[in-house]
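Entry 14: structure prediction run for Succinate--hydroxymethylglutarate CoA-transferase. Input pasted below.
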Amino acid sequence: MLASLARVAALRRTGLFSRRGGGTGLWTGRPQSDTDNVKPLEGVKILDLTRLLAGPFATMNLGDLGAEVIKVERPGAGDDTRTWGPPFVGTESTYFLSVNRNKKSIAVNIKDPKGVKIVKELAAVCDVFVENYVPGKLSAMGLGYEDIDKIAPHIVYCSITGYGQTGPLSQRAGYDAVASAVSGLMHITGPEGITQITTELVLIDYLLYMNLESLKIQLQFDSMTYLNHSRYR
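Run finished. Output tokens:
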């Protein structure tokens, strides 16, 4: 799949594969590098409205593959993980630096209409929009799937939740450890008879490949894609 995405990227750079719709993402067909050492996602632009681990880890991998990732943080404190530690590098959390490498960062107050306008302007020139808010939170601010679809119909919109968009548990936050416990994965991890332990499997790894596959489809057919990824199904 990654090889297929790379081929689509190469076609766009040579101008042989152009966007049919009115999207304004960065796939312009122009060369993105002066060398032949081009990464598979070079030229793809990601708008990252995620925090903690799930989203930042997925977009970190996209950045490692060459995508330009713009991380939106709250003014003042920024992402909560900026203070996670030890260890620290100076005053900066090594955890934060690790999962947010290869990214640009901008402080935007998305609770303010001016901040919402800024995020929409960024979304209009991006290829992927990733968020991990509790369902309904971004929609209430004017940044839900339907809102972004109006100004960026070309984009891949990815939501990461604990329990999905609907249902009795949808308003609960979730982490990989919670999903491992609720699903029973902890119960079958480790030797029999010992206290349940967390698994080494990071469930959110799969989100990276969901984003890549949807991005490939979006590039080929120029249609907006909505990914709804929940840790526990």
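Notes: Helices lie at 2-14, 54-64, 94-99, 113-123, 137-141, 145-151, 176-183, 205-221. Will compare against the previous run tomorrow.
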